[in-house]
């Protein structure tokens, strides 16, 4: 078994500067100190390119994709402009921006994002649960809402992809969505978010992921598998990750860190060590797809893998 030691693209992480006061979910909220992945107290600190470099420097990361980090609604385009002002050209080389698709000004906001050269995708989280601690979206049923779908139509018209973050009970609604938008490229976040670890919950997740894997316009981001598995073991991660690869194939799946959120339950080196170990029995072409090629193609990075040197992983 040969472990991948080539260049790595990390297609999902976040940055923030709390002094900007632009991330309300990271403020003190006594009514919701716990989220679905536990306490967020450890995330209430700046996380800048230098912090990401420190955490990732043993993993041969050659480029990253920044995914929106819950920037305030009343400052459209603010996060993108802030990220463009960061000096690092390797970190946040491409951006997935946030636009609430049902907003009355969604189309204008999307056009403003699409005009920025580093923006290649949009995310508007639809994850909803009856438990407020698990809830990311303000209301259920967004994927079926006509106004939200009009926004998604504009995403497609502008040539942007859509990062889809949901819970397994919403996968049937998502199947209808991706079938109704065959020209939209969807990237399912966080292994499909298997938050309910009961036998029934995991069965719903596994079956829903299989159905979404049949849709050619969906790709899977194998990001933060520890979020819903805080007492994780290599075997528990292997079950989730290998099912995802089985459903989508390496050519439509990609490993990603989701740092610093993943840092609540694992170090950067630990999560990439798990990725490398779990993928080690795949062919080298399949491993290269998971660590580099799928992300390179999905987020239009245009990099040549052969231009980078290999490095032994941590």
From TrEMBL:
NADP as UniProt keyword: no
InterPro entries: Amidohydro-rel, Metal_Hydrolase, Metallo-dep_Lactonases
Gene Ontology MF annotations: hydrolase activity
UniProt-listed Pfam families: Amidohydro_2 (PF04909)
Alphabetic keyword roster: Hydrolase
Domain Amidohydrolase-related: 9-301
Family: Belongs to the metallo-dependent hydrolases superfamily.
Protein name: Hydrolase
Organism: Aureimonas ureilytica
């Amino acid at each position: 078994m040969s472990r991948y030691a080539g260049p790595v693209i990390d297609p999902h992480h976040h940055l923030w500067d709390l002094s900007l006061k632009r991330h309300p979910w990271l403020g003190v909220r006594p009514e919701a100190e716990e989220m679905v992945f536990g306490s967020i107290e450890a995330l209430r600190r700046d996380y800048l390119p230098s912090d990401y470099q420190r955490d990732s420097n043993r993993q041969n990361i050659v480029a990253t994709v920044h995914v929106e980090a819950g920037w305030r609604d009343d400052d459209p385009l603010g996060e993108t402009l802030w990220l463009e002002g960061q000096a690092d050209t390797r970190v946040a080389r491409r951006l997935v921006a946030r636009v609430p698709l049902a907003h009355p000004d969604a189309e204008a906001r999307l056009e403003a994002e699409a005009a920025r050269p580093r923006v290649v995708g949009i995310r508007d989280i639809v994850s909803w649960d009856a438990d407020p601690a698990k809830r990311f979206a303000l209301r259920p049923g967004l994927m079926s809402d006509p106004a939200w779908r009009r926004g998604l139509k504009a995403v497609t018209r502008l040539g942007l992809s859509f990062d889809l973050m949901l819970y397994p009970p919403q996968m049937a609604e998502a199947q209808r969505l991706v079938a109704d938008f065959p020209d939209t490229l969807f990237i399912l976040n966080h292994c499909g978010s298997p938050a309910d670890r009961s036998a029934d919950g995991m069965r719903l997740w596994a079956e829903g992921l299989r159905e979404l894997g049949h849709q050619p316009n969906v790709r899977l981001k194998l990001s933060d598998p520890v979020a819903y598995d805080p007492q994780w073991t290599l075997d528990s991660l292997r079950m989730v990750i290998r099912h995802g690869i089985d459903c989508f194939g390496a050519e439509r799946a990609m490993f990603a860190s989701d740092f610093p959120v993943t840092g609540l339950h694992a170090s950067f080196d630990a999560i990439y060590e798990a990725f490398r170990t779990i993928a080690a029995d795949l062919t080298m072409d399949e491993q290269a797809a998971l660590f580099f090629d799928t992300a390179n193609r999905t987020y239009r990075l245009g990099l040549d893998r052969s231009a980078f040197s290999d490095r032994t992983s941590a």
